[in-house]
């Protein structure tokens, strides 16, 4: 069996669904993969058995209905989200419902994770697990909970591979690396990023991950003068210095939704000799863009202004229309939606049966804002 998502496997997934889902639902991703325009996220919820079971069922439904992008992070729900993904996908594969090479498994490292539940004394847990064990020194830690230290990242990649039950993680993100900029200067940040990129390139060489990038919250949505600002061209340049033009820094993630459209609207990134949007910069640099928080943590799922229904036509609910907006944003490969409920997976994946909104309909929302 293949150990990772492949070009052929992701095409097979698309072709199997061809009777119900139009081909535009699948977009060109990194390494020649085809990625569904709606992916399942696993951030929210308590670290308990009931939430595990709910995510497992929602994941099975989402995959059956056309999702082949699964997103997690080692710290989500104290590693339980990674573990439930590993369990649910292994079961689907064992039952012959899915093949490993059809699904793009993505996770993140950076925030120190708990293990199964939240301990009473978090500081002590981190001290015992990560500092006493020699994986981190106190100087490697930012905000008491974030690190890009090479030895620590190596450990985190191994833990994620075990949790997810995979030989190869298809996309490995450094999680909110801009957190480091709240504590260290930009030169130190670039030194730390270089060390992290070196680890990730080696992990690619060893087949432990297939490609990597950064998953961010503020970094790409603030102006170039802001402390947490990330310049995509600078990050890609660090990767090129480490591994040449064939580096594997191929995906970025940032929030993109009706309330946070900066990936498309804010010209804060160098693109050649001018400043353009993040999606323009990513396109020029050969980096794919994945949108997180497509529903702004559920806040865009109800009681939206009428103009949304007028622009995102043919859909029944505001959640569907909000997702349609994100997957129709130029330059966005996949819109990630957190779904613990099977009913939400069914409602949200109904959007995949429709083509994305036309560019004119998409732009109507911006015209309306200005008017
Ligand atoms: N910095 C980062 O790296 C970062 C930050 C944020 C998010 N992410 C990724 O992006 C994913 C998506 O973001 P998110 O989970 O934070 O927020 P989200 O996708 O914007 O919203 C998820 C919430 O919306 C609810 N929901 C889903 N479908 C719905 C529907 N049809 N009607 C009503 N409510 C609905 C979900 O409920 P149920 O769960 O009950 O179904 C959940 O409470 C995350 O899971 C994570 O994988 C990454």
What report would you give on this structure?
The chain is α/β, with parallel strands linked by helices and 371 residues long. The protein has one domain: TIM Barrel, CATH 3.20.20. The mean pLDDT is 96. It is built from 13 helices and 12 strands. Strands 3-4-5-6-7-8-11-12 form an 8-stranded parallel barrel, surrounded by 5 helices. A two-stranded antiparallel sheet has the order 1-2. It has a two-stranded antiparallel sheet with strand order 9-10. Helices cover 39% and strands 16% of the residues. The site of NADP nicotinamide-adenine-dinucleotide phosphate has 30 residues, from strand 12 and helix 12. NADP nicotinamide-adenine-dinucleotide phosphate (NAP) binds next to strand 12 and helix 12.
Give unreliable regions as ranges: none
CATH T-level fold name: TIM Barrel
Category from helices, strands and their pairing: alpha/beta
Q: What strand line-up does the widest sheet have?
A: 3-4-5-6-7-8-11-12
Distance between the termini: 55 Å
Share in helix:
25-40%
């Amino acid at each position: 069996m293949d150990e990772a998502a492949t070009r052929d496997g992701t095409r097979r997934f698309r072709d199997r669904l061809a009777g119900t889902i139009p081909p535009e639902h699948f977009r060109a991703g990194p390494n020649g993969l085809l990625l569904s325009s709606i992916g399942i996220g696993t951030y929210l919820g308590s670290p308990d058995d009931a939430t595990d079971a709910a995510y497992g069922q929602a994941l099975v439904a989402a995959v059956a209905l056309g999702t082949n992008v699964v997103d997690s992070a080692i710290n989500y729900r104290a590693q339980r989200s990674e573990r439930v993904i590993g369990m649910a996908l292994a079961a689907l594969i064992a039952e012959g419902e899915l093949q490993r090479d059809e699904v793009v498994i993505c996770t993140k490292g950076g925030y120190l994770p708990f293990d199964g539940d939240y301990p009473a004394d978090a500081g002590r847990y981190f001290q015992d697990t990560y500092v006493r064990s020699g994986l981190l020194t106190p100087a490697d830690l930012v905000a008491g909970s974030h690190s890009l230290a090479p030895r620590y990242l190596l450990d985190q990649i191994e833990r994620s591979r075990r949790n997810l039950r995979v030989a190869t993680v298809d996309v490995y993100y450094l999680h909110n690396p801009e957190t480091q900029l709240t504590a260290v200067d930009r030169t130190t940040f670039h030194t730390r990023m270089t060390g992290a990129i070196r680890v990730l390139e080696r992990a690619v060489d060893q087949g432990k991950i297939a490609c990597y990038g950064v998953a961010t919250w503020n970094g790409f949505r603030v102006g170039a003068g802001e402390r947490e600002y990330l310049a995509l061209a600078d990050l890609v340049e660090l990767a090129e210095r480490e591994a040449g033009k064939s580096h594997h820094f191929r995906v970025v993630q940032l929030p993109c939704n009706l309330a946070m459209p900066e990936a498309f609207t804010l010209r804060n990134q160098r693109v050649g000799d001018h400043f353009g949007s993040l999606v323009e910069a990513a396109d020029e640099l050969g980096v794919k863009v994945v949108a997180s928080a497509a529903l702004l943590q559920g806040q865009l799922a109800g009681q939206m202004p009428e103009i949304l229904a007028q622009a995102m036509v043919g859909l029944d609910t505001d959640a569907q229309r909000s997702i349609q907006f994100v997957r129709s944003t130029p330059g966005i490969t996949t819109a990630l939606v957190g779904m613990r409920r099977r009913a939400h997976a069914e409602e949200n994946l109904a959007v995949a049966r429709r083509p994305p909104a036309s560019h004119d309909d998409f732009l109507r929302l911006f015209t309306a804002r200005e008017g």
